[in-house]
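Quick one, probably user error.
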């Protein structure tokens, strides 16, 4: 018996999608309608827009931002699809055990050859506010522990700020600076800096009340400020 044919005969058919049982909400339907409108608008501006877009990407920027729905990378920087490679998570945390973040960083730096990695936080960040509190929210508490560690490093400063909003916003800034430092400490960036002089890491905070970006002026283009604890020799040298 033909094993392939037999396999086909005995295969279990995929379940039919429930075409009529799900009633679609207005908010869901509006997404697809919005897509149709967007396609029309883009084609009106440039009939070849999608032909060009589908050919590939060569972004010069990697954006590591917060998942918050109010801080989309393209909109706040007035850039177009294809210009910014994006990774987002709650409170723009960059930790060296996060395979998702590391994979995005490695691909952006070593394959796409981006020139700028930007860690972008935002004032009023709910994740940062939660890390300052003693409330439990579930699984996310383990993720936010990374920000509590930043709080611990700067508790002497933060605990002196009596206004709660100001205290959250200061930790937003300190968190961005710490995550920039974490990116710089990674083997990916340290090794890239050994070969390239055109790779910069930056820290930004978006002010949702004005829409404006505040550069935290912690940009790095080399390992000068890493500190001896985190500086790494190259792999060959370490093996001898
Ligand atoms: Zn946030």
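Nope, works fine. Designed sequence:
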């Amino acid at each position: 018996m033909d094993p392939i044919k037999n396999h086909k005969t005995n295969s279990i058919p995929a379940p039919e999608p429930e075409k009529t049982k799900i009633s679609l909400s207005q908010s869901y339907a509006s997404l697809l309608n919005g897509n149709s409108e967007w396609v029309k608008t883009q084609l009106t501006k440039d009939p070849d827009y999608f032909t060009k877009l589908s050919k590939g990407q060569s972004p010069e920027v990697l954006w590591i931002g917060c998942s918050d729905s109010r801080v989309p990378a393209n909109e706040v920087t007035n850039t177009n699809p294809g210009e910014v490679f994006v990774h987002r998570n709650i409170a723009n945390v960059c930790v060296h055990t996060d395979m998702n973040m590391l994979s995005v960083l490695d691909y952006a730096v070593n394959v796409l050859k981006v020139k700028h990695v930007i860690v972008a936080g935002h004032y009023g960040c709910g994740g940062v506010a939660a890390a300052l509190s003693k409330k439990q929210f579930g699984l996310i508490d383990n993720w936010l522990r990374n920000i509590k560690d930043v709080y611990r490093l700067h508790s002497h400063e933060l605990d002196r700020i009596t206004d709660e909003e100001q205290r959250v916003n200061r930790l937003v800034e300190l968190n961005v600076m710490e995550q920039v430092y974490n990116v710089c400490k990674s083997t990916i960036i340290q090794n890239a800096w050994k070969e390239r002089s055109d790779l910069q890491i930056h820290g930004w905070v978006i002010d949702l009340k004005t829409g404006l970006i505040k550069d935290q002026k912690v940009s790095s283009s080399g390992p000068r400020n890493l500190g001896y604890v985190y500086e790494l020799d190259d792999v060959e040298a370490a093996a001898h």
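The chain has a mean pLDDT of 93.
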